[in-house]
C-alpha cells in the first residue's frame, strides 16, 4: 500500500499483518481522488479532512498529499491508531494531523468542522447512518462538506436526510458514494 499521488506520492504505508482492517486499495483510492480532483468547486485544496474509521490513515494521508491543509483521524481500535501514528510519522506530517480515539457512532462535540470527510466503516455492521448522524450532530462537519462513503458494492445504505448523494460508483466489490452535507434549504 502506498500514497498514489501528490507530494507524498510513492511513500509506502504501514498496514496490519492480519485482516482486521480492510484498507482502500490503491486502485480505488486513485479513482476516488481523480473524482475529488475534478470536482467543482474544488474539495481538496486547503480542505480540513475527517477520516472516520481511519484504519491505516491512507485516505486522510492521500488527501494531505494532494493539497488538504489538515487531517483528523478517528478510530477506536488502538492497533489502528498505532498504524495511523506510524504512517503520519513516516511522512513527517505530525504538524498537519490529529489522531483521536473515539467510537465514530458516538462522537463528542467538536468545534473544528471538516470540509471533506471519509467514512470507511467495517462492512456489515450498519454503521454508516449512525456515524454520519454523530458527525453532523457533533459539529464535526462543516455546512456543505463533501462526504465520501466506502461500502460493499451491493449494500444500499440509509443516509440521514442532510446527506444528498452526488456520485455513486462501483469498483469490483467496492462501492463509493459521494454526498454533500447540507442542513440549509436549497431554493
* Ends distance: 44 Å
Strand arrangement within the widest β-sheet reads 3-2-1-4-5-7-6
Helix content: 10-25%
Task: Estimate what percentage of residues fall within beta strands.
Answer: 25-35%
Shape: globular
Q: What profile does the largest beta sheet have?
A: 7 strands, mixed
On the 0-100 scale, what is the average pLDDT? Answer: 90
Would you mind describing this structure in some detail?
The chain is an alpha/beta fold. The chain is 23% helix and 27% strand. The chain contains four helices and seven strands; from the N terminus they run αβαβαββαβββ. The chain has helices at 26-37, 58-65, 78-90, 128-137, and strands at residues 48-52, 70-75, 97-101, 114-119, 141-152, 163-171, 174-181. The protein has a seven-stranded mixed β-sheet with strand order 3-2-1-4-5-7-6, sandwiched between helices. A hairpin with a 2-residue loop joins β6 (163-171) and β7 (174-181). The longest helix has 13 residues, at 78-90. The radius of gyration is 15 Å and the shape is globular. The mean pLDDT is 90.
Which helices and strands, and how do they pair?
Elements: H1 26-37, E1 48-52, H2 58-65, E2 70-75, H3 78-90, E3 97-101, E4 114-119, H4 128-137, E5 141-152, E6 163-171, E7 174-181
Parallel strand pairs: 1-2, 1-4, 2-3, 4-5
Antiparallel strand pairs: 5-7, 6-7
